[in-house]
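Reviewers of the previous submission asked for a worked example of the structure-prediction workflow described in the proposal, so we include one complete record here. The input consisted solely of the amino acid sequence. No template or homolog information was supplied to the procedure at any stage.
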Amino acid sequence: MTADTFERSCAHWSAQGEREMQQFYSIASVDYEHLADARDWRKWLTDHQEAAPAPLKLLDVACGSGKFPAALLRRFEGDGAVPGEIAYSLLDPARFSIDEARSVLKPPFSPGAEYEVTLQALDVAENAFDVAWATHALYAMPREELVEGLGRLIAACEREIFIAHAFAEGHYIRFQELFLEAFARQGETPYCSAQDLIAALDTLGARYEVSEISYANGAASEQRDVVEGFLQRCVFDESVSLTEMEASPVLGPYLRECQTNERWSFEQRVALITIRP
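From that input alone, the workflow returned the following structure tokens.
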């Protein structure tokens, strides 16, 4: 039986998938730069520190390789202003991801608890954390499990939760949808979109606000190997080459739209969701 979306994503978050991961982030790192600029995170963290017992307890959901805290640390160092100590807990179903994310942490982030589980399986005390974030983290969660997973997250967090997630119109969701259709993978689990997360929050009766940012990931036209690695990682499937994708009557037209002025440009539309439990 072919591995489904979640199983393939876990396999890619491993030492064996490190090469593909680096190709992906050579283009996708810009996601976290935009998120780091989306608000004054130093003030956000400091404000919560002033209202909570020290140290501030933070949970990074589906932490990946720590690209978001790394982007924040660069900005803290750049302006010379660092928040107080933050107990930084890591959740991810892949041990490799937890180890990678922990390796980038430095003050004000001090390594906290580790949870090698899915969000749906998180089992902690109510209000175990002050704040939490999930940045481009929940795509592989089946839609029918969103209410359970988000419900557990809300119960575990006392003050505020930040989620960054692509809308259905953005590249990550659109590309996977076309890829599954193009290569007869309709039986595989589609990514959930920001719209799906918002619907689940409505079901939970959660208090939340949504804003959005738009930008593009890009690469020079001649960087085909990098683009191929990025696109394969977007669907956690290295079995289909860029040439095969371009030849597909379903996926090919979309990829041609992504090439302008001798560059690849993958348009992103990202929801910034703030939840106040």
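Strands lie at 56-61, 86-91, 109-115, 129-135, 157-166, 208-220, 259-260, 263-275. We consider this example representative of the routine output the project will generate in years two and three.
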